[in-house]
Amino acid sequence: LRNYSIGDMLARFLMMEGKQVLHPMGYDAFGLPAENAAIKYGTHPHKWTWDNIEHMTDQLKRMGCSYDWRRRVETCNPNYYHWTQWLFLQFHKKGLAYRKTAPVNWCESCGTVLANEQVINDGHCWRCATPVVKKNLEQWFLRITDYAQELLDSLDDLPGWPERVKLMQRNWIGRSEGVRLRFALYGASLEIETFTTRIDTIFGVTFLALSPEHPAVSFIADRSPKKDEIEEFVASSITQTEREQAAAGGEKRGIDTGIFAVNPVNGEKVPVWIANYILMEYGTGAIMGVPAHDQRDFDFARKYSIPVIPVINPPTGEILDGRTMDVAFEEDGIQCNSGKFDGMPSSEALPAMTEWFVSSGWGEREVNFRLRDWLISRQRYWGAPIPIIYCDKCGAVPVPESDLPVELPLDIEMKTGVNPLAGADEWKRAPCPKCGGPGVRETDTMDTFICSSWYFLRFASPWTESGPFETEDTDYWMAVDQYIGGIEHACLHLIYARFFTKFLADCGMLKVREPFTNLLTQGMVIKDGAKMSKSKGNVVDPDEIITKWGADTARLFILFASPPEKDLDWSDQGVEGAHRFLQRVFRLVESNLEGLRGASKDVLSMASIRDKKARDLKRRIHYTIQRVTRDIEEEKQFNTAVARLMELSNDLGSFSPASGDQWALFREGVEVLLTLLTPIAPHICEEMWEMTGGEGFISERRWPQVDESALVLDNITVVLQVNGKVREQVDLP
Length: 733
Known about the structure:
- It is a single chain.
- The strands form ten sheets. Strands 8, 9, 10, 11, 12, 13 and 16 form a seven-stranded mixed sheet that branches. The chain has a four-stranded antiparallel sheet with strand order 4-3-7-17.
- Helix 2 crosses helix 3.
- The chain contains 24 helices and 30 strands.
- With 733 residues, the chain is α+β, with helices and mostly antiparallel strands.
- Helix content is 36%, strand content 19%.
- The chain has three domains: 2-78 and 449-523, Rossmann fold (3-Layer(aba) Sandwich), CATH 3.40.50; 175-369, Valyl/Leucyl/Isoleucyl-tRNA synthetase, editing domain (Isoleucyl-tRNA Synthetase, domain 2); 532-711, Isoleucyl-tRNA Synthetase, Domain 1 (Orthogonal Bundle), CATH 1.10.730.
- Strand 3 and strand 4 form a beta hairpin.
């Protein structure tokens, strides 16, 4: 409820400010959770999903969310995934969707592959926390790496995003500049390519290390006297995930192959190892080991008694001895043991050695990215079918656009860990679109993040049947002004949505290249010391809260209990406190109904008010307008906005109108209080507005404007100090 309460409050506020607001709702409804739940409860994912969509729609309506329900989309609706499939075909036409055999992340529990971004916490499935293993499969990928540089550069064009999220994306994209170099295997025709950002340490190489998945491993094993040992080591290491291998503090294991490579700069032979901490998915899958200046290499070298040769000394003048070093020296310093570069500061040696190395023909300059192409195949049923038909004669053939959507068959049997589409023989049979011969449909479905990478565009024209959206509509509405979502989306949905937007802009379908102008990452909701989760049994049922306390109480508590970017501790006492505040406001209105109804609706100017208490109240009213507007619009600190409304309520409660002008001022204060409270607690405010004789709906009123003259203080207190001690306080007009 937290996300929706924040979004609805902002939408209502902006509408009251007179803006055109598109506030839609959709359901990202494909994916593993629905399929696994359907299997668990013995039902069909289609029924399970649609039942839950309708239930959640009812809950959101009970919460009073101001969505334009005419624009509702569901990613599992054929009318929607028709265009998800169409978008896949556009990627395919441009050469950005391709199929290859690759070692992939496999979750045994979910029975499917995972994208790199979906492997978390040192090698566990993001859905079920099962340890992930490696498996060689032929899979479909999207070439997101073609956009790596722009995805990185255009983060600078997003001032409305939290720096934390932008940093997470920068680190995930992981741009590094360096040199791709080649080490020839001694006595063989093969060269091992490595990538390094520290060519200034090339003279300190004492070993090469290859990933167990490196394609040269089999070549080396066939020529090694340790072939059987190498094959055993590779078999035991291949199941480790990239994050386990990469963890700096994890166990580093390796095997000396007995094969040597030649350092191109000095002709020295260095042993070739296979090591579990080398990532096939980054760089070339092989590294030049420089233990004196890389901590992981140092740990590995010490474990296996590999020599450590310093080639950079500290700038303090200390001379490092590889035999006695306790840790790697990874900072800038002075080159040593580096031939003609001895004595040069390493910061100057790096570009000089790069130029020398490249001009000597030993390597090339290269920019590398940590970001990998997006693996989108999933061996599960509940997802958008990949629109490809396989033909023995023609290969992988795209389904014609006129034949979309390729709909999921509903007459299937759900079994744990089995993709029902693989056994849907009638559904699988399809003629080849090229030659008309017999063909077989692709039985993998698309990663559900494909569906959620463009839904915001569909909201602009959900009724169109001629394309995924109408460009006239997206030109008007895009980019999204305010996106609200958890920090967990930083390196998944938010990167994918940016990628899709840039691709569609390149296709001439969008004017914008970034989907979301402003990003608010709300914190988690915590109960009993842990994140709310069905598996932990600490979930609060929204229906029960609404039935017991009302939607307005729930909304108020959620917005008041914590700043939106911080975690929110769910508290029954806090909910009761929110309810009491709404009751106080109601009593304030109810107990003054006669005076409010009879009061003049004319707004008194500050200059016409003489009574001090009345002037103070007038000032408080307009100070509250100013601060609440700023808290909501600029600061996004909704908890302090509520606190200011509580203060105004107290001030109104302690004010006793004694004249017609004072009743007019009191009415102004109540109207302001109710108007400012309306985006937060719309139902009770509409009721109180009607009670006071207000015309129309209060939610359709314009947001109050600040009277700057009312903010001017009548007196300023000047404090006089002598030798740091207060001697006098003087009130000056």
